[in-house]
Structure formats: structure tokens, C-alpha cells
């Protein structure tokens, strides 16, 4: 069983939860279904669940639907063997990420957590 | 029950959530099991594709947890290639929780017919099929550990694994039916 965390920005806001709340209900549920699978079985068993690393230690979770959700996450970064941390929300449209620099921002957020362990919290389930 | 399973259970109360969770898990299950069965046999995607009369690219698409356009016809072809039977049935949402909790490589592996212990030739094994007792439903192999099975302990394996004594009335039942 893997643990899942959300990134917290410099103002103390859970930007992952904020991003998820802006999604439509079916999208939120599809996302949570994939996160459930990730927590249950980890990254290696379900094929194509994660893409990457797409950038420095950054993976892309793939959720299909009328909106292609592509939240960025990393293993750990405090315990790479049993934790994931969601670092930024993103979508893919016409094969382009929105925001375009999602992977780079995710890498920056990952480093912020490594420097300050309080910059993350347990994943907030929003369905 | 784990915290994750507790959370999922409470979320299944919502109809849309449980349908999305169940459909997503079905897609993930199919994709993952195709990959696990292929790897269990030591095959590449190309090798499975050739045996199933498909292109490698098709197998790659099927081995994707996000793919949802698979058909029973395609899965039947894969089942034949993998030497397993395809099971399709409707089930309760309660069983989803159990399947989700057990979801892992071990629970997904299935032997091909050639490696199915039920059909393995074994001088020390007796195969009983078509058993009427609920306790012994399915295929069962009983292996004795001495030349005098009546007085030996007998290990019974199959869909329900257990150990029985030769004098066990259940085993007598097995023998009688067999």
C-alpha cells in the first residue's frame, strides 16, 4: 500500500485540492479511481498508469475522458518506496500540457518539499 | 480493512462514484492481467500478438489501464492464445472491494492449460472432477504421501486448498463421487 500526499504552496494552500475542486464531478471521480489504483498497487503493476519520468523525477498520471487530466507527481520525495506526492494539476489538450510548464513547476515543488517537509499534507479525497 | 478501503467503501454509496470506480477498475484489471499473463509465460507483446492473430501494436493498446474499448471477441482470442478461459459475469459492488484489496500480480496470474495442476500428469495424484459437494466444488488434486493412502495424510490442492486426513469423511465423499 502506497501513501499519497498533496503539495502545499508557500501560502499554506493545498493547490492540488483546489485544482481537483475545479474539475467536474465525473472527472474528479475518474481521477480518484486512478489514485486509488496507484495507492493499492504502486507504480509498476498497472500498465500505462503513469508516464515518465517526464522531467526530473516527475511522473504524469494519465486519466482519460472528455478532459485529459495529467496531474504531475513524484515518488516520495521523502520515502521513494512507499509514497507519492501530487505536485501540480494539469490537463492535456491537442497533445499539449496546460499549464505548459507543469513538469518544471512540479520539479520545483518537489524540491520545496525536500527542503521543507511541511510543504505537503495527506491527499485530500474529493469526489 | 485498510483506511483506503474504508474510504472507497464510503464513497461507493454515491451511484456515479461506484459506477465510475467499477468501470475504471474493470479496465485496469483487464489491461494488467493481459500483461501479467503474458509476462508469466515469458512472452513479448509480439509473441502474444502472433499467437492471437493480432499486431503487436494492438497488444500494446490493450495493455493500457486507460483503454476501455476492448470487446469480448478480442478477449476470447487472447484467452485462447494464453491457454486460459475467459470468465464474464455480473457481480455485486461488495465483491469489488474484495477484488480491489487483493489486486496484485499473484491474484492475476493464471496457469495455462498445460501448466494447470489439475491436468498435470502425476503418479501420486488423483484428479477428482464434477464433485457434488459444495465444499469440494471445482477441480481437486489429492496427493498421498505413502503407498497406503487410507492411513496417510493427504494434501488436497485446487481452487480451495486444504489438508485432509485419509479417514476424513469428506475425503471419503470425494472418493465415492469420483
Give an overview in words.
The complex is a heterodimer of chains A (127) and B (178). Chain A contains three helices and nine strands. With 127 residues, chain A is an alpha+beta fold. A six-stranded mixed sheet of chain A has the order 2-3-5-6-1-9. In chain A, a hairpin with a 2-residue loop joins β7 and β8. The longest helix of chain A is centred in the N-terminal third of the chain and has 17 residues, at 25-41. The mean pLDDT of chain A is 96. Chain B is of the alpha+beta class and 178 residues long. Chain B folds into two domains: 3-112, Orthogonal Bundle (434 Repressor (Amino-terminal Domain)); 117-177, no CATH class. Chain B has eight helices and four strands. Chain B is globular, with a radius of gyration of 20 Å. Mean pLDDT of chain B is 78; it is low at 127-178. The A-B interface holds A 1, 25-26, 29-30, 32-34, 36-37, 39-41, 45-49, 62-64, 125, 127 and B 2, 4, 7-8, 11, 14, 16-17, 20-21, 24-25, 28, 31-32, 35-36, 63-66, 68, 100-101, 103-105.
What is the CA–CA distance across the termini of chain B? 40 Å
What is the overall shape of chain A? globular
Mean pLDDT of chain A: 96
Q: Which bin fits the share of residues in helices of chain A?
A: 25-40%
Trace the largest sheet of chain A across and list its strands: 2-3-5-6-1-9
**Contiguous helical run count of chain A:** 3
The CATH first-level class of the largest domain in chain B comes to Mainly Alpha
Overall pLDDT of chain B: 78
Radius of gyration of chain B (CA) equals 20 Å
CATH homologous superfamily of the largest domain in chain B? lambda repressor-like DNA-binding domains
Integer count of domains of chain A: 1
